[in-house]
What we know:
By secondary structure, this protein is of the alpha+beta class. It has helices at about 15-30, 60-70, 105-115, 145-155; strands spanning about 5-10, 35, 45-55, 75-85, 95-100, 130-135, 170, 175-180, 185-195. It has a single domain, classed as Cyclic phosphodiesterase (Cyclic Phosphodiesterase, Chain: A), CATH 3.90.1140.10. It is globular.
Amino acid sequence: MGERVRTFIAMELPAEVRAHLVSEQEELSAAGGDVRWVRVENIHLTLVFLGDVAAERLGEVAEAVRGAAAGTGAIRLRVGGAGQFPPRGRPRVVWIGIEEPTGALDRLQKRIAEATAAFAEKIENRRYEAHLTLGRVRSARGSEALAAAIAESAGQGGPLGPARGKPEFEAAEVVVFRSDLSPEGPTYTALARVALGQ
């Protein structure tokens, strides 16, 4: 059996957004929850997670993404407030939302998901929620205080615009990534870059 490559499709984040996420992680970690925070250089806006894909089919994945993204220009995005999965009760995943009111991001994500469905280990049926994963909760320790801190940050979102210092950025490409897991954490390698607006 040939090599299988853990694969996902995402948008990269500019430096000012990563700096904002570091400050969000610091604020939320002050709540004292037992969270394994994601290294900021590993945070992306994931569009589709494919799982293990046969290495010889990765070129087809890139072509499918290229076809799905054709005709879509760069998309203006803004960082929102914090949230959690599940939305109520003890947090298991801590995230920051991404706001894009025109629907362009949702339409692009849907087209890419449909175009790459043949390569996916499992088809996601739940509605896409654009978010950046900040951390994963390891235990119930401090979870009430963490949930309260998340709720406080959630109230700091708002309409698209520069309100409350939330950074805006332009997403101009989609990237097909390889993910290699190790005890030190995942390593992500860009396999293909697809420019928007081509």
